[in-house]
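Q:
Just now I want nothing more than another pair of eyes on a protein record. Here is the record:
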Amino acid sequence: MAPRSSHQPASTRKGKSKTRSAAGRSRKRLLQPLLENAQDAIALVDDAGRFLDANLAACQLFGLSRQALLERTLPDFIDAGNGHEGLNLQTSQRQIGELRLVNSGPVPCEVEYSLTPAVLPHGHLLVLRDISRRKAAIEDELQRQRQRVELFSEVTLKIRQSLQLKEILHTTVTEVQRILRADRVLIYQVLPDGTGKTISEAVLPNYPTILDMEFPEEVFPEAYHQLYAQGRVRAITDVHNPAAGLSECLVDFVNQFDIKAKLIVPIVQNLNHNGSASHNQLWGLLIAHQCRSPRHWVDFELELMQQLADQISIALAQAQLLERLEEIVEVRTAELQDANRSLKQEINDRKQAEAALRQSEEQLRLITNALPVLIAYVDDQQQYRFNNNAYFDWLGKSPGDIYGSHLQQVWGAACYQRMQFYVDSALSGHTVTYENEITLANGNQRSVDVTYVPHLDDQNTVKGFFALTSDISDRKAIERMKDEFISVVSHELRTPLTSLHSALKILATGRLGSLSIDGQQMLEIADESTERLVRLVNNVLDLQRIESGKVIMDRQAHNAADFMIQAAEAMQAMAQQHGVTLVTQPQELMIWADADYILQALTNLLSNAIKFSAPGDTVWLTAEAGQDEAVFRVRDEGQGIPADHLERIFERFQQVDSSDSRKKGGTGLGLTICRKIIEQHEGRIWAESTLGQGSTFSFTLPTLQG
């Protein structure tokens, strides 16, 4: 038998070739609609960059028809000024990068590219995406940020170039209105009798002016004076929103002037009389109004208003000093006008006026030296160019010894290290205030409050800064005495209160005899009040121990599910008593915490949620894993918390509604203790709420990895 040939007949080979060609054409027909409808530009190029094929998006990107594009090469379109070293058609690795293409349009376009080599023999897949708009948007945002900084610098420079207070105030309201595009910007001065009036205003023609209009004390009560004197800032998006916290009479009042939203920043003066402790006095308010519609005020607008309010405070002090000098000049000028008009007398009077001015300057210098605070000027090389005599009283160094010395030479390496960050900030053009501990010449320690105000020239270049250092040791000592007093009083109260509470409990059982119905009611009231006092004393003691640093957290590895189960079991009886359903969803997470204190925080949050829930409501306790932390949440269906109270509720004795809190039995310290506990665990705690829909309290704890 003849051997079987290994070669197939020609007719067989031709048949298979036709089958493969048909299959290829079929696949191409299937892929063609996908390529044509793709948003990205897709093309095939050979090793030399010649276009082999391209979809419709690619033709639109290069601005050519498919036939015209197939006659060109990719390097023809790459902007030579930017280079294209990153794109290599000879490599076997997939490439990703950015290019600038020159197409038929007037402006080059920026594209992202992805090159997949050898999808066909000597054919590479190129995917391009136009990112010109995205880059332009980024550049526009950077430009807006630069414009904001330049605008603020321009306003500050205009204020500092004038010594006339009226001109400064007018410049401030005009420039703020221009930058913020507000409908009305005004400065409201608080008068000594509690009333006030608008002394400067910039308002659009469509809205009524309130310049020189006086307002009664009811519009701005004494309670508001105290809050604003402490630096309170209010940004109200919508005056008609109940969450804004405005009374109905105040809403009716602002409606007269078509006010929809307002931003209020206090102008505060720091006063010091006869060497006594300084205190803040509210001079007035810098206010922006939006009348067309409600408005959300952004951080830049709030920061601009605050810094300009500080500039106005400085301008007030300068104006008062200028007024004194002008009075002196007026007196001397009047004397000259009333004197003999002869040349000799004029010369003598002029000499007398000059002597008076020198004497005034000397008096001012003496006043500066007599102040019980450190006043100095430091140049941009951190060297002293001026300091008052208080430096000698504190440090034992005369002005001559200090002049030209570096800050580190005067204060020592350790103290300079603590102040270096703030010095750098001041030399960067920022006003800074901080507290520090210094050592006096006699070796005693002193707590001080330090403020640095940068000195800028006409080109807005920092030439140095003014330094004001005041002694706050007495205030610190008073704070320590206060904490000690609270601790002692609380300790002394806890024992008799506990005994009194126990005695009232025994009386309530009826073991020592029965009482009348009225007597039993009075006994129950006394028992509840005593129990609340015991809770208050315990909370005060817990808070004082945590803040004093006497508590050392014994942190160990624990399962979060155990905490959640224990907290729920502890609060189950209270939930049943209030008719509230307590739902717990334990999560297996290993956390690093002190078991007792975290359990205390959880029960505090659950207790609050239950107290402020109505019968039939549900309270949830959940946990979830975050990045290197566990997030615990307590959610209720209560009445909710206004947005402007979400931060204040974590402060001491802060409650949303005092009467309701007293009815519920709150002390106002539970959330403060929770925050201190969580912060000592290196975690965060916050609240989220919607009025009428409940609140959610969340906190984080570090987790154990691996």
Summary: Residues 1-7 have pLDDT under 50 and may be disordered.
